[in-house]
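Quick one, C-alpha cells below. Sequence please?
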C-alpha cells in the first residue's frame, strides 16, 4: 500500500511537472522522502544497464537505448539525464505498475558517478559501463581519484554485476576488483596525438604504484594507450576494439565489423565503441547494433545548427569541465573556413557552486591564429574574458557582451562561421537562440 501510494504520487507529480514545465527530479525527491528504500520494491525481469563516467554518459546511454528501440525492444530510460538518485527514482516509479512491476525488456540508466553507490544499494544492476574519469566540477566531485573510491563502493554493492571498462583510461580501468569485466578501446586515429594537447591530464602517474605513466598516443586528455614505467599496469587487451575510424565517411570498425554512424567527433566515436561493448555484452547482436546506431539522431540538445543573417551557427553544449570544452575546441579546429567562437558561460546556479576555476584548465591557446574572434557572453562573460585575456588574445580578437539583448550586434562584429560553446545548465542556452531569432 505504501509503495502504491508513493508510485501514484510520483506519477501524478510527474504529469503535473510536465504540464508546468518543472524538472524531472522533484517527483522522485518527494517519493524518496515518503519511502526512502522505495526502489528496493521494484520488480523487473529484464536487464538493467547503467552508464557512468565524467563525460559522454548521456550520449552513450541514448545510443544504447536507441539501438534497443530500433530493434523492437521496449526500454525504460532517463533520456534527459536526470541521473542522481531522485531522477532515477522518478524514471522508474513513473514506468512501473502500482504493484511495482516494470514491464520492459531493458532499463537503461545514465547514473551520476558519485551517486551510483546510493542507487546500487537498492536497485539490481546487471551491467555497469564506466566511460572515463576526468576532472569534472571539482568543487562538487573532488579529484577523479576521489570519485573512483565512490565508484568502488557502488561496485561492492553488486558483486554479480558485469563491468564494461575503458582500456585506455588508467583510473577507471583499474576498478574491476572481483567483478567480471570486459574492456573496450579505440585504435590510434588520424586525430590522435603523441603528446597530450588538452589543458588537463589527470593520470600522469600510475594509480597502482604512483610512478610515471607513459602513453603511446592520446585520443584526448589522458585517454590513450598507456603503460606504467615501474609496475606491469598497462592498457588491457580489449574485448571490443575500434579500428579504421573514418571521420570523413563516418564509419568505424568494431571487432572487424564496419559500422556507419551519424557523427564525426572523436568523443562520439569513442562513445560508440563503449556503447557497442555494453550492448553486445548485454545480449544485443552486432547486426542489431549496426542497424540501430546508423539512425541515431544525437543526444538531445547537445548539438544544433542554424542560420544567423546568412552565417552558419553551430551551438555545442559542453559540460562544465575542461575536458568537454577542450573537445569542443578540437571540433572547431577541425572545421574548414573562417570562424569565430562564442563562449557562453552561464553557471551561476547553486548546483554548480558558481565555480569557474575549470575555465583556467582549458587549452584556449590552441585557438591562437585559428579563429577570427572569441566573443564571451552569458552571466559569466567577464570571468571568461579574463581567462581568455590571460591566454594572450589581443583586444581585436577578444570581445565580450554580457547583455543578451545586445547579442545580435555582438555577433555582427564577429567574422566567419560561428561556433557557440555553451557551458550552461537547465536549458539556459536557449536564451541566446531566442535573442538571435528575434
Ligand atoms: Zn605502476
Amino acid at each position: 500500500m505504501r509503495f502504491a501510494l508513493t508510485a501514484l504520487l510520483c506519477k501524478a507529480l510527474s504529469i503535473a511537472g510536465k504540464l508546468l514545465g518543472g524538472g524531472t527530479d522533484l517527483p522522485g525527491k518527494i517519493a524518496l522522502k515518503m519511502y526512502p528504500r522505495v526502489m528496493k520494491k521494484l520488480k523487473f525481469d529484464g536487464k538493467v544497464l547503467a552508464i557512468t563516467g565524467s563525460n559522454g554518459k548521456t550520449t552513450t546511454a541514448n545510443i544504447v537505448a536507441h539501438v534497443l528501440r530500433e530493434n523492437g525492444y521496449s526500454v525504460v530510460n532517463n533520456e534527459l539525464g536526470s541521473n542522481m538518485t531522485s531522477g532515477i527514482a522518478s524514471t522508474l516509479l513513473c514506468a512501473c505498475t502500482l504493484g511495482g512491476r516494470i514491464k520492459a525488456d531493458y532499463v537503461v540508466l545514465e547514473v551520476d558517478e558519485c551517486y551510483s553507490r546510493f542507487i546500487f544499494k537498492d536497485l539490481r544492476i546487471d551491467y555497469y559501463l564506466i566511460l572515463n574519469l576526468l576532472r569534472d566540477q571539482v568543487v562538487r566531485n573532488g579529484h577523479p581519484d576521489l570519485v573512483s573510491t565512490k565508484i568502488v563502493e557502488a561496485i561492492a554493492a553488486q558483486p554479480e554485476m558485469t563491468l564494461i571498462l575503458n582500456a585506455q583510461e588508467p583510473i577507471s580501468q583499474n576498478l574491476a576488483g572481483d567483478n567480471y569485466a570486459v574492456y573496450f578501446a579505440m585504435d590510434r586515429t588520424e586525430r590522435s596525438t603523441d603528446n597530450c594537447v588538452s589543458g588537463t591530464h589527470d593520470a600522469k602517474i600510475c594509480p597502482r604504484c604512483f610512478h610515471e605513466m607513459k602513453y603511446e598516443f592520446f585520443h584526448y586528455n589522458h585517454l590513450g594507450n598507456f603503460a606504467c614505467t615501474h609496475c606491469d599496469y598497462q592498457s588491457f587487451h580489449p574485448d571490443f576494439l575500434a579500428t579504421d575510424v573514418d571521420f570523413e565517411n563516418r564509419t568505424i570498425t568494431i571487432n572487424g565489423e564496419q559500422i556507419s554512424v551519424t557523427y564525426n567527433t572523436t568523443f562520439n566515436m569513442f562513445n560508440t565503441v563503449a556503447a557497442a561493448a555494453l550492448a553486445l555484452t548485454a545480449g544485443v547482436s552486432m547486426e542489431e547494433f549496426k542497424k540501430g546506431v546508423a539512425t541515431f539522431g544525437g543526444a538531445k540538445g547537445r548539438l544544433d545548427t542554424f542560420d544567423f543573417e546568412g552565417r552558419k551557427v553551430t551551438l555545442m553544449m559542453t559540460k562544465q569541465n575542461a575536458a568537454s570544452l577542450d573537445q569542443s575546441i578540437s571540433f572547431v579546429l577541425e572545421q574548414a573556413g573562417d570562424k569565430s567562437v562564442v563562449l557562453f558561460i552561464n553557471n551561476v546556479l547553486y548546483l554548480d557552486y558558481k565555480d569557474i576555476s575549470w575555465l583556467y584548465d582549458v587549452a584556449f591557446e590552441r585557438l591562437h591564429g585559428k579563429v577570427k574572434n572569441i566573443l564571451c557572453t552569458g552571466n559569466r562573460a567577464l570571468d571568461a574574458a579574463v581567462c581568455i585575456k590571460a591566454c594572450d588574445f589581443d583586444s581585436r580578437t577578444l570581445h565580450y557582451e554580457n547583455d543578451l539583448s545586445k547579442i545580435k550586434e555582438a555577433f555582427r562584429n564577429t567574422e566567419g562561421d560561428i561556433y557557440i560553446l555553451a557551458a550552461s545548465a537547465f536549458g539556459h542556452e536557449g536564451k541566446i537562440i531566442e535573442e538571435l531569432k528575434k
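The first strand starts at residue 47 and ends at 52. The radius of gyration is 22 Å.
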